[in-house]
Amino acid sequence: MRGGIDLGGTKIQAVVVDDAGEVKGEERVPTPTGGGPPDVADAIAGALRGAADAAGVETAALDGVGVGSPGIVDTRKGVVSSARNLPDWEGSFPLAQTLGAAVGTRVRIENDVQVATNAEFELGAGRPYRSLLGVFWGTGVGGGIILKGRPWIGRGGAGEIGHVVVKKDGARCPCGRRGCMEAYAGRKALEQRARKRVEKGEKTDLFKIMEKRGRDRLTSGIWARALDHNDRVAAKLLDEAVEALGVGVASALNVLDVDAVILGGGLGLRLGEPYRERIEAAMMPHLFSSDDPPAMHMAALGDLGGAIGASLLIRPRRGAVAQPATVS
Ligand SMILES: [Zn+2]
Fold it and tell me: Could you tell me if residue 291 is inside a domain?
């Protein structure tokens, strides 16, 4: 069995899967909001132990653990840097080494969005296609690219669709630049925009729902609930997010012209098919190939896609008895 971790800005999802990729155990914990990288590593280890318990194994008996992480990932060294959606993670942290020592097995780390895109390509909604753009609409807006059946990571920084500029000198993005798509669409930026509107005297239930649920941030579920309550501020901000996503995704497609777009991420999955349709409609005016647009689907692996994808980072050990022969 193998472990997979989806390390997100809001939650840490752990799975334990068997050889066939079937989930045997899972556990989800909130991402610590303080304490820095060592506390996050502790929380990951805890989530993995929970998933392993549910699967009836010790973590040390796992063939390995794959981690999909935000930030800049040095896969060879197992080091994660500049993960700004995680607490106090501006610098570099040896996550593979720290986590490996805590759980007693090898750890391999890759960029979270590419991991989730690979999972959709291999096991999910992307299976029929040779080229894909994965758009993960959550705390930030991440993108993953598959070209001719292979991940395209450029020099390491490809796929950053959240930082496609949709408005020159526009809103400040969590990345520090201005006018990025994420500045209008990312959950973190949406929360800041909602707070600004409240400061200006606008009324919204967003923060009341947050308090009622005992949360310290506006989760995807809170946005969905506010929409159900016809909250005008929530609806207006999400309208702007849809417009930004339409412009940004269409711009990326005009360059890449991939077979299909897969929409996932916490907000994407929570708001679901109606919002996928709205984003597709918002894309059309900007799409050069609008007569023959690429297919667009919701991510099929759902909430567990990132963690299942991360488990794919652990390939069978050479010489392992129980594994079928594979050529890689
Ligand atoms: Zn940005």
Answer: yes
Q: Could you tell me what percent of the chain has a pLDDT over 90?
A: 81
Residue 143 shares a structural domain with residue 283: yes
72 three-class SS = strand
Count up the domains in the chain and report the number.
Answer: 2
On whether both 141 and 282 belong to a single domain, the answer is: yes
Alpha carbon distances (Å) from 305 to 159, 204, 207, 257:
18, 32, 29, 24
Residue numbers of the domain that contains 190: 127-299
Distance 163 CA to ligand 1 centre (A): 4
298 alpha carbon to ligand 1 midpoint, in Å? 24
Whole-structure pTM value: 0.85
Taking each helix axis from N to C end, the angle separating 37-55 and 95-103, rounded to the nearest 10 degrees, works out to: 40
Q: Based on the domain organization, do 141 and 260 belong to the same domain?
A: yes
Dist. CA 173 → ligand 1 center (Å)? 5
Q: Say how many Å lie between the CA of residue 162 and the centre of ligand 1.
A: 6
Helix, strand, or coil (residue 79): strand
Higher pLDDT, 174 or 162: 162
